[in-house]
Write a structure and sequence with these properties.
With 672 residues, the chain is of the alpha/beta class. The chain has helices spanning 16-38, 41-56, 71-78, 119-128, 130-138, 142-163, 166-170, 182-189, 239-249, 266-275, 296-313, 327-334, 343-354, 367-375, 378-419, 433-488, 499-537, 572-579, 585-641, 653-670; strands at 60-64, 96-101, 112-116, 174-177, 209-216, 225-229, 253-259, 283-288, 321-324. The chain has a domain at 424-646. β7, α10 (266-275) and β8 (283-288) form a beta-alpha-beta unit.
Length: 672
C-alpha cells in the first residue's frame, strides 16, 4: 500500500459538508495571505499564526465498542479500504489507531508513527494487575489481584521472549515510517497469537504498542479529519477502559458501535455509562451487523425501541442519534463483490431495501452496488459526522478565527485611519514605550489575577460539592444496607446502584464548568475594554472607534472518568465473595462505606485535581496569548507614530484598502 491510497468513488459519500467547511477555511487562508502582503511584517506574523491554527484544526471522531462489535470493519469501510486495519485484534492488545485523512500537519517524511508504552506504565500493570487488579484489591479480593498480576507477568514475559533485548529499549520510544502497507500495520496493531508463533512478524510489537498514527491521502475525502479506532473495552485488565475514557475526552464526536444481533451486554452498559457524561450532540450510536438479522424490517424498530428504553435507564440523552447498518455490506459494496455474500445476508439486504424505512435509499442510486452502499448505513453515518463537525467544532473554529481576524483588521485600520493620517501632525507626540508597556503589564497582571481568583473559587466550590456528593451517597447507601440487613440478614446478596452518585458528581463538574465559563468571559471582555481604553488614552483615538473581540473560552472536556467501572458495578459473583466473613451489621456497613470512599476518591481527584486545573490553565494561556498579540499591535502602532519611523510604502493604499474591505466582508459572511 502506497502513501496515497485509492478508494472507490462511492466511499466519501455523505462527507461533502466537510469539503464545504474546508473551502471556507481555504478562503480565509487566502485572505490571510493577502493581509500578510499588504499589512506589513507585524500583521503578516499574526496572519501566519491564524493560518497555522486553521491547518492544525483536526476534529477527532472516535469509535468505541466491545470486541467483535465490528468497529474496525466499520472504520475500514468509512475510509474506503476493505482491508486496511486488521479486524481480528486480540483482547490482549491495547492499540489506539488514528487515521489522519489528508492531514495538513503531517510530520515531514512520516506516513506511519507507532508509539510504545513507557516503562512506568508497564511497571504499574505488572505490580498491580492494571485497573482490574487495583479494583480487586480495594474490594478486598487479594487472591484475584494476584491471579490477574500473574497473567500480566506471563504476558510481559511472552513479549520479552518475542522481542529479546529490544523489549526494554523500545519502551517509551516510537517507530516512524514514510510508507504504509498492511504487513507494517499488522506488526504493530494485530496480535499474532499466543500459541502459534509461526508468523514471527505479525503482531511482533503489538503487546507494547500504545498508539498508532496513520496518515492517509484519500482522493475525494475532506482534509483535516481524524478517525480513531479503539480496541474493544471488554479485556481482562480493563486497560482499554482507561484508554477509551481518554479517547472520548479529547474527541469531538463519539461513535458507539453496538451489535444488532446481541442484547446489550454488561460491557455495552459500561460504554453507556461513559457516554452518559458526553453531550448528546457529540454521540452517535451505530448499530452494526443488521445483515445478521433474520428479518431486519420487523426487528430493527423493536431493537431501537429497546435501545431507547435502555438509554433512558442509563441516564443517556434519549435524543442520541441511532444509525442502523452493516459494515459487512459496505465492504462488499466497496469491493464490488455483492454476489459473493451468503444467501442469508443477501436476503436480509433485500428485505431491508423493501422496507418503508429505506424509502430515502430507493431514489437516486446508481445500480445495486450504490444501493448496497447506502443500505449499509455508512453514508448516513458520514452525514452525521459532517453535520456534527460543521455545526460543532467547525463553527467554533470559524468563529474563533473570524474574531481574531477582526481584531487584526482593527489594528491595521486604526494604524491607517487614526494614526497614519496624523503621523506628521504636531497634535500627536511620540509614544512613551516604557509607559505603554507599564500599562499593558498592569492589564495583564490585573486580569490574570482576576482569572486565577475566579478559577480558585470555582475549584474550591467543586471540591466541596464532590466531597459532599461522596458523603451523601455513602450515607444513603449505608442506610439502605442497614435496612436490607434488618430485613434479610447477611445471607442475601445486596447491591446499591451507583447511578445517583455519578449524577451528583457530573452535576458538580458541569456546574463548575458553567461558573468558569461565565467568569472567564467576564475577564476576557474586561481585558478587551482595557485595551480599547489604551487606544483612546494613549493614542487619542475617539472613544468607541476601536472594538475588539474577546478570545474564545477553553472547551470544558466531558467528565468521562465519572463513568469508569468501580467495584460497585461488579457482578453478583463478586458481591457474593464480598459478603463472606461478615459478622453483624456494623462490619458490613463499615466495610461498604470504606469501599465507597476508596472507589470514588480517584474519580474525585481526577475531576478536582486534574481536569479542573487543566481547564483554568488553558483559559489563562488563552488570555496570555491574546494580551501578547494586543501588546505587539500597540507597540507597532507606537513605532508608527514615531517621527523617525518611515511610512509604510510596501503596497499602494488603494490595494491595501481593497484587501481589508474584502477580508472584512468575508469574515462577516462567516457569521451568517
Amino acid at each position: 500500500m502506497s502513501s496515497s491510497v485509492s478508494s472507490p468513488a462511492i466511499a466519501p459519500e455523505g462527507l461533502e459538508g466537510l469539503n464545504a467547511l474546508w473551502r471556507s477555511f481555504d478562503d480565509v487562508k487566502s485572505a490571510l495571505d493577502r493581509i500578510g502582503d499588504v499589512g506589513g511584517d507585524d500583521a503578516g506574523k499574526q496572519a501566519d499564526k491564524i493560518a497555522n491554527k486553521i491547518d492544525s484544526f483536526e476534529p477527532t471522531i472516535t469509535l468505541i465498542g466491545q470486541i467483535k462489535a465490528g468497529k474496525t470493519a466499520l472504520i475500514n469501510a468509512m475510509v474506503g479500504q476493505t482491508d486496511l486495519l486488521p479486524s481480528d485484534v486480540n483482547p490482549w492488545t491495547s492499540v489506539v489507531t488514528s487515521l489522519h485523512l489528508n492531514s495538513r500537519r503531517r510530520p515531514e517524511g512520516t506516513r506511519a508513527l507507532f508509539s510504545f508504552f513507557d516503562e512506568e506504565e508497564w511497571d504499574r500493570l505488572v505490580s498491580t494487575g492494571g485497573r482490574l487488579g487495583e479494583l480487586a484489591q480495594r474490594a478486598g479480593f487479594g487472591n484475584e489481584k494476584d491471579e490477574i498480576r500473574a497473567q500480566v507477568v506471563a504476558m510481559r514475559e511472552k513479549s520479552r521472549a518475542r522481542l529479546g533485548k529490544k523489549f526494554e529499549l523500545l519502551l517509551g520510544t516510537s517507530h516512524s515510517y514514510d510508507m504504509i502497507d498492511k504487513d507494517l500495520i499488522d506488526r504493530y496493531v494485530c496480535y499474532g497469537g499466543w500459541e502459534d508463533d509461526e508468523d514471527t512478524s505479525r503482531g511482533r510489537f503489538a503487546d507494547i504498542t500504545k498508539l498508532a498514527n496513520l496518515y492517509l491521502d484519500l482522493p475525494g475525502y475532506p482534509s483535516g479529519l481524524c478517525l480513531r479506532d479503539t480496541p474493544g473495552v471488554n479485556d481482562t485488565f480493563m486497560m482499554r477502559e482507561q484508554i477509551t475514557i481518554n479517547s472520548i475526552r479529547d474527541s469531538r464526536l463519539c461513535i458507539v458501535v453496538l451489535s444488532a444481533h446481541q442484547a446489550l451486554s454488561t460491557m455495552d452498559m459500561a460504554l453507556l455509562r461513559l457516554i452518559a457524561n458526553v453531550d448528546a450532540r457529540e454521540v452517535v450510536l451505530f448499530v452494526n451487523r443488521i445483515d445478521e438479522l433474520d428479518d431486519p424490517v420487523s426487528e430493527i424498530p423493536e431493537i431501537e425501541k429497546n435501545f431507547r428504553q435502555t438509554l433512558k435507564k442509563q441516564d443517556v440523552a434519549e435524543d442520541v442519534q441511532i444509525v442502523f447498518g452493516s459494515a459487512y455490506w459496505a465492504l462488499h459494496a466497496l469491493s464490488d463483490s455483492l454476489d459473493d455474500m451468503p444467501a442469508a445476508s443477501s436476503k436480509a439486504m433485500e428485505r431491508w431495501a423493501e422496507s418503508d424505512l429505506c424509502d430515502d435509499f430507493m431514489t437516486g442510486y446508481n445500480g445495486v452496488r450504490d444501493l448496497a452502499w447506502n443500505l449499509s448505513g455508512v453514508p448516513a453515518l458520514h452525514r452525521c459526522i459532517a453535520d456534527r463537525v460543521v455545526n460543532g467544532p467547525g463553527k467554533a473554529m470559524l468563529d474563533e478565527v473570524r474574531d481574531e481576524i477582526s481584531n487584526l483588521l482593527t489594528s491595521i485600520e486604526t494604524a491607517d485611519t487614526e494614526i497614519g493620517l496624523r503621523r506628521d501632525s504636531t497634535t500627536i507626540s511620540d509614544i512613551d514605550r516604557d509607559a505603554l508597556n507599564a500599562k499593558l503589564d498592569d492589564i495583564e497582571k490585573r486580569h490574570g489575577n482576576a482569572l486565577n481568583d475566579a478559577g480558585a473559587f470555582a475549584r474550591d466550590e467543586l471540591s466541596e460539592r464532590l466531597t459532599r456528593s461522596q458523603t451523601i451517597f455513602a450515607d444513603r447507601a449505608v442506610e439502605a444496607l442497614l435496612s436490607h440487613i434488618e430485613a434479610h440478614g447477611t445471607d442475601e446478596v445486596w447491591q446499591y446502584n451507583p447511578a445517583g452518585l455519578r449524577m451528583m458528581l457530573r452535576s458538580a463538574y458541569n456546574g463548575f464548568g458553567a461558573a468558569i465559563e461565565k467568569s472567564t468571559q467576564d475577564v476576557f471582555h474586561d481585558a478587551c475594554r482595557a485595551i480599547e481604553d489604551i487606544y483612546t488614552d494613549v493614542f487619542g483615538v475617539e472613544a468607541g472607534k476601536v472594538t475588539l473581540k474577546p478570545p474564545a473560552n477553553a472547551r470544558l472536556l466531558p467528565p468521562t472518568t465519572v463513568g469508569q467501572t468501580i467495584a460497585l458495578d461488579l457482578n453478583v459473583s463478586w458481591w457474593k465473595k464480598w459478603w463472606l466473613g461478615f459478622r453483624g451489621a456494623n462490619a458490613a456497613t463499615e466495610r461498604y462505606s470504606e469501599l465507597v470512599l476508596k472507589e470514588t476518591t480517584s474519580i474525585i481527584d481526577e475531576l478536582s485535581d486534574v481536569m479542573a486545573p487543566g481547564l483554568c490553565k488553558e483559559n489563562a494561556d488563552i488570555l496570555t496569548e491574546f494580551l501578547k498579540t494586543q501588546r505587539e499591535a500597540l507597540l507597532s502602532l507606537a513605532d508608527s507614530v514615531s517621527s523617525e519611523a518611515p511610512a509604510d510604502e510596501e503596497s499602494p493604499a488603494s490595494d491595501k484598502e481593497e484587501t481589508l474591505n474584502e477580508t472584512r466582508k468575508l469574515i462577516d459572511s462567516l457569521a451568517a
